[in-house]
Amino acid sequence: MTSPISRSRRLVAAAAALTATALVITGCTSGGGDEDAPDTLYILSTDTTIGWDPATNVNFPSTWNGLIARRLTTWKVTDSGVEVVPDLATDTGTPSDDGTTWTYTLKDDIFFEDGTPITSADIKYGIERSYSPDLAGGLHYHNAIIVGGSEYTGPFDGAELEGIETPDDTTIVFHLTTAYGDWPWIAATNPFAPVPVGEGTDLAAYDEDPVASGPYQIDSNVAGSETVLVRNEYWKQETDEVRTAQPDTIVIRQSQNPSTTAQALISDTGDAATSINAYPLSASELALVNADPAAQERLVTSDGGVLYYVALNNDSEELSNPLVRQAVHYATDRNAIVLAQGGDQAAVAATTLIPDGIAGHEDFDLYPEDVDKAKELLAEAGYPDGVTLDLWVANEDTAAAEALQQGLARADITVNINPLDIGVMYGDAMGGNPDYDMMLTYWIGDYPSANAYVSLMFDSSYIDGGYNLSRTNDPSVDTALHEAIAETDPDTAAADWTAIDKQIMGLGSMLPLYLTRNSYLAGSDVEPFAVPAYPPYPDFTTLSLAG
Amino acid sequence: MTTTTAVRDDLAVPTRKTGFRTLLGKLARDPWAVASSTTIVVFVLAAVFADQLTGITGNDPYTYHQDLLDAKGQPTGWGGGIGADHWFGVEPLTGRDLFAIVVYGARTSLFIGISATVLSVLIGTIVGITSGYFGGWYDRIVSRGVDVMFGFPTLVFLIALMAIIPADVPRPPFIALVIGLFGWPGISRIVRGQALALRERNFVVASKAMGARSWRIVLGQVLPNVGATIIVVTSIIIPGMIAAEAALSFLGVGVTPPTPSWGRTIGDAVLWVRTSPMYLVFPGAALFLITLAFNLFGDSLRDALDPRTARR
Q: What is the CATH number of domain B103-305?
C-alpha cells in the first residue's frame, strides 16, 4: 500500500483558484473567530475526502487516525526516526519461541469516548471488521498471516476469526501462520484500533464518525470541507506515552488549494499562525518560501521521504529483455530529474530499493550513468536504432517523466508519456489491463521495514491485483523474500534485505529515481518540530501551540 | 434587393460589391484589420518556420539547460534568464528555452485551432444549408439535434473523453477532431437562417421553376450567397477553438508533454507567477495576441463585407 500522498490535480486547483478569486471579488475574508479559539490547530489538506474508519484508512499512526484511534502499539516519532512503542498494550508484544504466537496485555484506564472501558474483544472485533469484503482498500498486512485469515470474511454474519484468542478482557493472543519479525509494527496499523463490539455496521456512518479511543473525538465532519476534532475527556494522558494532545481543538480543512495554502502560511496572519500544511510543498511553492526570509526560517524539510520509481514491465515486448532494462538504467539522468523537482531542497537521487534510514539499506549503484554503455546494450539486444517505450504517469508527476524522457532520449530510447488520472492508472495496471512498458509512480512503506518496501512490489503473488507493477516473476526472489520475512533476528533480517535489494536491482525490473524531501511550513504559533526521513510527515499527535 | 430577414442581422451579409479587390481595398483602409492580419501572418510564419527561427540560437523546446538554473531549479539572470541565447529566458526546473516553447506552441495552437475550425465550418455549413433549404421533417429533426448539441456540456465531456483515450492515439489531431466535432452547432444555425431566407428569394424560386435540381440550387445559388457569412464566422470562431485547446491543455488533459502547448505552459507557469513571472508572461501574451488578432480581423472582415456598416 502506498500512503498519505495526495496532491490535488490541476482541475481542483483551477476550481479552487476560481473560488479564491470569487472571494476576493466579493470582499469576503476567510476565518474569523480567532479570539474565541486561541488553542485551535488548523491542518490544511488538499484531500477532498478523508475517511476515518480504521479498517480502511491507510494513513500512518502518527497522522490523521492517530489523533482519534489508539491501537495495540503505535509510533514514537523522534528527530531521527521512529520506533514502535506500546499504546493500548503494556508492551510491544511477547512472541512464543517459534515466533508464531504473539501475546498482548492491555493497560488499565483505557476508555472509548463514551466512557466504556476498552477490552480485548473490542480490538479483536476491530481487526475482524477489516476482513469484511465491504471494507477493502485498507492496510491488510495481517490478513493472510493470522490463522484462518485466508477464508475469513468479517464479523457481520456472526463468524469469528479463529487465529485471535481473548482469554480475558485484558489479554489478546494472535496465532500466526508463520513467524513474522515485523509483527509489532503490524500491531500499530489502523485495523488494530479498537471498535466497540457490534458497532460500525453502518459503514458510511462509521467512516464519518467512528468511536474514538484517542485524545480527540470527531465533533463535526463535513466531507471534503472541514473536520473538527475536540477533546475526548475519557482519554488519560498517563496511559499514553506518545500523544501530547496540547491543542484543545484541531480543525482539518480539506480541499485546500496547495498554492493558496502556501501563500497563507507565508503571510502568517490570522488562522495561518496556528496552521500547518498536511502535504509537502511543491517546487513552485518552495520557491515562494525561498523568496521570503521570514517564512524560510519556519520551513521544516525532511532528509528523505517517498520513493519515486519506474516499474519496468517484464511482460512488455522490449523490456522482457534484461539488456534493454539495463540500458534504461544506464541512460537515466537522475541529476536532471532531481533538479526538475526543485533540486537538493526537494529531492535526493535514489539508486537502491531500500531507502536510507531503513534497516537493510546499503548505498550502491549497479548502473552508474553511462549513455554509451546504454547504446551498446541496446545494440546487443537487437535494437541498434533504439526502442520506443510507453510510460504511464499520474497527471501530477509529468515533470519527473519529462526529465526521464530527455535522459533516455540520449540513448535513442524514445519515451511516449501517457499522463493519466492516478486512480485510472492503478485501476488499469492492477485490474488486468497492464498495457504499459514503464510506469512512473511512488511508494512509501507503511512501516519502516525493508519488508514494507520490497515484498509487496516483487513477490510474484502480487502480480495482477497487487503492487508488483514490474510484473517480476522470479522464483528465487520469492524464496528469498519469504525467508527474510520469517527472520526474527533484526541483524540477520537486515543483511537478508540488503542481499535482496541487490538481487532485485540486478534484475533491472525497477528503476529508483529519487526520494522526495518533504517540506512543511508551520505558522509562527506552532511550536517548532522536526520531520525525520521516515515518516516524512509531521507527527500530528504531538504538534503543540505556543502561548 | 433589400433584406428583410430577422435572422442574425449582424452576420447576414447580402452580396453586393464583394469583389476580392474591393474587399482588400476596404481592409487595407482599416487600421485594425491591418494590425490584426499582420499579427496573424507573423504567428503563422513563426509556426511554419519554427525550426529555422529557433535554429538561429540553436535551441529546441525539448533540450534541458539545467546549467542555467540555480541549485533550486530557478533560472539565474534577469527576467528568468533572458539573454542573447534565450530570448524569452528559460523554464524553471528544466531550463528549456522558452522562446522555442512559445514558437512551437504556436504550431500546436494554430494547427489545432485551424483544423478544428475547418471541420466545424464544414459540418456546420452542410447541416445548416441542407436543413434550411430542405426544411420539413428533416429540418425539424436536425434542428432538435443542434439544440441538444448546444445544451451539451462540451468541456466536461472533453475532459472525460481525453482521460480515457489510449496513449497511442496522436493527441493534436485527436483534439482537433473532437473540438471540431463539438464546435459546429453555432455555424449551422447561422447558415440555416440564411438558407431559410434565400429559399424564398426570387432567383431561387426562378431556378426551381425552371426545373433545376435541389443539389444544384444549393451549390449554385444558396452556397455562394452565404459564403461571405461563412468566411466571417470562420475567422471569429478560430480563437474560440485555440482557446478550447489551451483550456484542455491547461487542465492537463490536452496535448501530452513534451509537445509544447501554450495552455499547458500557462498551467505550469501559474504556480511560478511570483518567482518567475516571465514564464507566464510570454506564452500568456502569445495566446492573448493571437486570439485578439483573429477576433479583430473577423470584425473588420464583417464590416468590409457588409454594406450596411459603411464607414462613416
A: 1.10.3720.10
